[in-house]
Amino acid sequence: MTSQEEKTENKNEKKEKKEKKNKTDSNTKYDRAGLENVMKRRFFTSPAFEIYNGIAGLYDYGPTGCALKNNIENYWREHFILEESLLEISATCLTPEIVLKTSGHVDKFTDYAVKDVKTGQAYRCDKLIQEWINKEKNKKKKPSEEKLKELDELYQECDKFDEKQIDDCIEKYKIKSEAGNDLSKSYKFNLMFETQIGPSGGLKGYLRPETAQGHFVNFKHLLEFNGGKIPFGSASIGLGFRNEIAPRSGLLRVREFTMAEIEYFVDPENKNHKKFDTIKHLKLPLWRAKDQLEFKPITNDLTIEEAVKNKVIANETLAYFISKTYLFLVEIGIRPEGIRFRQHTPTEMAHYASDCWDAEIETSYGWIEVAGHADRTCFDLSRHSEVAHIDLVAARPLKEPKIVKGVKVSPNKGVIFKDFSDKAKAKKLCEKLEKLTEDEKEKYMQEFENNGKIEVDVDGEKLLLDKEKNEIKMERFENKVMEEKFIPNVIEPSFGIGRIIYCVLEHCFAVRANDTKRTYFNFPPCVAPYKVSILPLVATNEFLQFVEPIRKILVQNGISYKIDDNNDSIGRRYARTDEIGVPFGITIDDITVKEQTVTFREINTMKQIRLPINDIGIVCRNLSNRVEKWEDIMKKYPLFEAVKKE
Amino acid sequence: MTSQEEKTENKNEKKEKKEKKNKTDSNTKYDRAGLENVMKRRFFTSPAFEIYNGIAGLYDYGPTGCALKNNIENYWREHFILEESLLEISATCLTPEIVLKTSGHVDKFTDYAVKDVKTGQAYRCDKLIQEWINKEKNKKKKPSEEKLKELDELYQECDKFDEKQIDDCIEKYKIKSEAGNDLSKSYKFNLMFETQIGPSGGLKGYLRPETAQGHFVNFKHLLEFNGGKIPFGSASIGLGFRNEIAPRSGLLRVREFTMAEIEYFVDPENKNHKKFDTIKHLKLPLWRAKDQLEFKPITNDLTIEEAVKNKVIANETLAYFISKTYLFLVEIGIRPEGIRFRQHTPTEMAHYASDCWDAEIETSYGWIEVAGHADRTCFDLSRHSEVAHIDLVAARPLKEPKIVKGVKVSPNKGVIFKDFSDKAKAKKLCEKLEKLTEDEKEKYMQEFENNGKIEVDVDGEKLLLDKEKNEIKMERFENKVMEEKFIPNVIEPSFGIGRIIYCVLEHCFAVRANDTKRTYFNFPPCVAPYKVSILPLVATNEFLQFVEPIRKILVQNGISYKIDDNNDSIGRRYARTDEIGVPFGITIDDITVKEQTVTFREINTMKQIRLPINDIGIVCRNLSNRVEKWEDIMKKYPLFEAVKKE
């Protein structure tokens, strides 16, 4: 997710509205307040530091939210890392400036801001202008047709403005701050959090805006770990940070967030995927860049195989991961009809990408990007190779051996250290010569052949090495090789876990019989925060004695549970566990005492079966691990009709 | 882990040396270089940003290290969160200054530093002085007895020095930098990473040095989630950051680290634990503060029950978690004889603690703190209550009803907003009056009773509210209550996951038959990075066809695996998987083709059994989840004697 990408969100929402203009807007019906009420009251999430009035864009996860988050992350691990044999790494958030300078983030990871000249309140320019436009359009006195057209165009264009265009726009339309004050000139604001590493004050660092760089700087280790073979992927689940100018939209735009990223390294000459056959039959909703620009709808009728064949999606590996993402999202509870894949238009593409498809989910806020699938080409590995002077390359076997020409550089250290009085400089000089790239060697070789000496730049000083003084030897050579080196390309699926969590909450939020007080979440069991509730029908010792043995069985099977031995009616207690989406409920009743069975209730159907205590472990595990479905379990055990109604 | 705690490490190592002076030092024999070689070569960890020459104190985890880390974290979750029904939360790393000012970290989370006046290189003062002492003592010309005594005392004392004492010491002994240059005056250096939140530059923030504050600021939500009942615990696994002055010792002293912390909230009048009986029989190695100061050894012969009874450990809850930590460490592969619990001496206790016991593990670096168990009393909740003006309290039922006196403050908003021209100020005033603590209300009441008016401080300005003007009403009342409120105390077990990982690596590192090239890790299966290897005896289609079905079985059972279908000898491939501690190896051979069975080898015993393919899932799962041990499995299946020797 780049800053650039976000800017297009509003635009796309707008396009969507155009598409839908003749439909009723289903979003207005969504009970977001109801959802937010449950999220807060049952501690899924909470604004961070709320007792100190909170900090915009920072959220904490409570027990229910945290469990949901862990489960989604664990399923992501299973679905991607374990299934695709990816190499998981965990790299640091603290990142020295040089890495993010090299990656382009220091220069390009920016938004434009303006400040209220009186209060100092900052605004993101594009959002500010767009909000002003919305207000203008909704004024009692409607703008003229001509004016409306002008505003619509401005809405579309303002996220591509430079400083001058922004300042001109603000002046022309007399746009003010929320408090009605004048605004400062616009300025570029880098979205990375800056800090100092170490006590000497010399080392500027940032909190990483993406986990990706941690993969790239470890590329050599990863390739070696994989036995030198390509393709392979690395994966990482970890924090990213982004100092949003004025974050809103709750969990959807935050300053600290969990990302799950895959960097899949491929041979640029072969971006096929060996498991492509397993997904090629899927038909996914694809919205091409071309179609977006021409206000054309989504394509729904292409198989993935056809999409690759027709160059809608650039290559098999990109298409494979798009498909895997689709399957992932459906499995964790997103409604299939609320998913689409939107290709980036040329102007919104991040600085490192050649093609990109966002997975978007429909929410009450509109369509929201939750994952990107970018072909980052060889951009990152090339840049780090250049700056760190290290070859980040892989090799492919050749069908026939090839003659490779090269240059051997042999500095004579003994002589150099004798000739140079500044030993530290001599050391740096030798180190530099050891790290030359092939291109640099060739350049020096030409100099050497022409002049018999070479000039090496060390910390801005030109140092001369002379063949005659025996300081250096250089030779050309030819080798017969069986492989050729190349810089791998990178296909990057990148997931915003917090956004996905929010979308799962929205899509799984349900209401019974139109009674807005009887809400529940129909989470798939694999992601539900707690899998089972344990409810003694009444809190007598006769029933309570079963709680601990049942709890033990659940712990042994790694099943999270919630005990409610309050004396409230069973219906009320079901309602409480329903509210946080506990998919299964165990009640201990008279029959339990006589027959060692419990009732086992499912949240969606509210149907109950009679389950032997001995089977609780395996049934809960199979349901949670997606080995069996409720329908399967229902067939195996007798239905139980409770006497009282809930 | 506080900064203060760390300072004592060296001191304790020193005490240890004294204790051991007549023993041979077993540490010198430990093959740390061998371990580090494997860790690097097989990508357990790597210095972060190595291609840019690295940043001290930052490490990345590769696939093996990352899997080990995940497994240890997951087992921690099972052992603590699931078993103890703790409430897991995930709070942000970014923390506004006010929170860490309130917690005392802004003022007290500091070390003293000095700089080389020429190079700017910074040193931590106590470490610098101690290193200088070590050098002095190891000089060819041994110091006199008297001098030795002076140096020993200095070694013990220097970590408690203030600026002046440090400067005097450096001057007196003419201590220089590593480069031989003069040193600056000493200065306090705060160990927190600072940053700015938001674009306006007004909000100073830090990266949290501990996860604990995230629990305290969420206390009200947590208590409510727990139905208002106490005791209960919250838990969090997340990052902590500490800007070490000059980090060394590899993974043991880093700037970004994963912590697992529990805040267990108890009634200060009842710190018993309901599951105390389950651990009270344990005899743990306890090193009391008193005994440390008197150079007396560790106590090994007290049961936990006796330790609490004799006030060696302050209360049951503290003792319960100390015991749980012991069981946790043993289960993940730490040798029991390499664990001890050391009580903090009064001078080293953190500013918030009343009693503290560190879990320490013996390593080649000496005894290392990996977890702390502190009684933080009501320090944090009281401080946040005071500063945020919010009651962070719980309630206990009373045996008999009690009369509670209080003050009701009723500002008359209508009148106030009429009387005050500055409406923003009026709003703030009313908000402040809504948030008064009981103490503040009493103070205002006295003012009100004396003068008929009260003076309220809003942003430094004193605002007057007058009874006569009908701006405010205040009344005393009496209520009969059935419960009384109290500020809970907090027992905090806090784990450094990175340190634990390093200790597990050290303790599980083993060598076969004294051949330092045949190293392996005898990780318990539950923490091993990969549980099983899949090795076709030779890479023919006949054998390879079994790889995918076996892999599928493993994925379905959530078992991590490593396939090695290289044509190397089976012995070589075993050696490779041994080196990263894969506990079980599956080979596919002739008999597999005929009988659908595989060989199944265990790493420690190197014994093999013959296992039906259908049983692979359940056997691997039971071994990984600690349901069965290798000895149990051995009894169920026929032993298989390989023809060739490994």
Structure description:
Two copies of one chain form a homodimer. By secondary structure, chain A is of the alpha+beta class. Chain A has 24 helices and 27 strands. An eight-stranded mixed β-sheet of chain A has the order 3-10-11-20-15-14-13-12, sandwiched between helices. In chain A, β21 and β22 form a beta hairpin. In chain A, α6 runs antiparallel to α7. The longest helix of chain A is centred in the first third of the chain and has 20 residues. At the A-B interface, β2, α3, β3, β4 and β8 of A face β2, α3, β3, β4 and β8 of B.
What's the overall average pLDDT of chain A, rounded?
91
Q: Segments of chain A where pLDDT lies below 50 for 5+ residues?
A: 1-10, 16-28
Secondary structural class of chain A:
alpha+beta
User: Which word captures the global form of chain A?
Assistant: globular
Q: Proportion of β residues of chain A?
A: 25-35%
Largest interface: A-B, 85 and 84 residues
Question: Helix tally of chain A?
Answer: 24
> Helix fraction of chain A?
25-40%
Largest sheet of chain A: 8 strands, mixed
**Terminal Cα separation of chain A, in Å?**
46 Å
**Oligomerization state:** homodimer
Number of strands of chain A: 27
Order of strands across the biggest sheet of chain A? 3-10-11-20-15-14-13-12
* Rg over C-alpha atoms of chain A, rounded to the nearest angstrom: 30 Å
